[in-house]
Amino acid sequence: MESGRFRPYRAGRVLIEPGAKPYFFEVILRPEALWEVGVLAKLASAFSESGAPLLGVKMSAARSGERLRILFAADLKGREGEAAKLADRLKRVPSVEQVEYAPPLFDGVAVDAWSHPLLLDDERAAILPYAFLAGMLKRGWEEYGTGFAAMLYHVALAGAVEECRECFEKFGRGECVKLFAERFRLLGYGVLEIEKLTERELVARVYDSVECGAFRGAGEPRGALTRGIVAGIAAAVWSAPPESIVAEEVKCLAKGDPYCEFRVRRR
After folding, report:
1. Using CA atoms, how far apart are residues 252 and 78, in angstroms rounded to an integer?
2. pTM of the prediction?
3. Distance between CA 59 and CA 72 in Å, rounded?
């Protein structure tokens, strides 16, 4: 993995700014606004003209024909009573259909009050915070050991096969493997690079694995979930039954290696 190639991205719509009075504004625009030039600049100018510093901007990905949703977070400290006036100003921007706003959840903290369910493309998704994920994995290993690892492997394999099969209905297998690797990164699992893929062998590396990073210093592989995902990719591409797949983790962050490496083959 190239050093400096990636940068952190804060996906959550929770804004924490101590000492501020952050408000969220939801702006819904008509579908044609997706192709209009300058709409975002006009919306942003409404905040600058109101003297409200923008603390964040998020836009929900839209398809042609869908209404656009843009979320703005702004600090209204000392001008809390201006929220309604700011919303009216936003409503006067051409292409805007609807504007709502939400006050701070409590001092210094604001949240997106409107979005549910979370979608990845058109598919519902769920995000597990690191503390939750690490705590769950550590507890499972402590209580059930290799039995827990076996369960993680098999359920992850089945899930990856299902996701790949859905992708195969839209794109070619090679294209889906590329897309799967990028989604793996975008979902926060780590940076997945397919080093080799033939009719009987797959070699993959995962850099900065969120799973194995929770077990640094363990001295042995801990990437059971990721091993199952990589095995599932291979099983789907090969149209092979799970029992014919052999997957090994030969390098792991938990062992002190700089990355995790998985080797998958057919029996």
Report:
1. 52
2. 0.90
3. 9
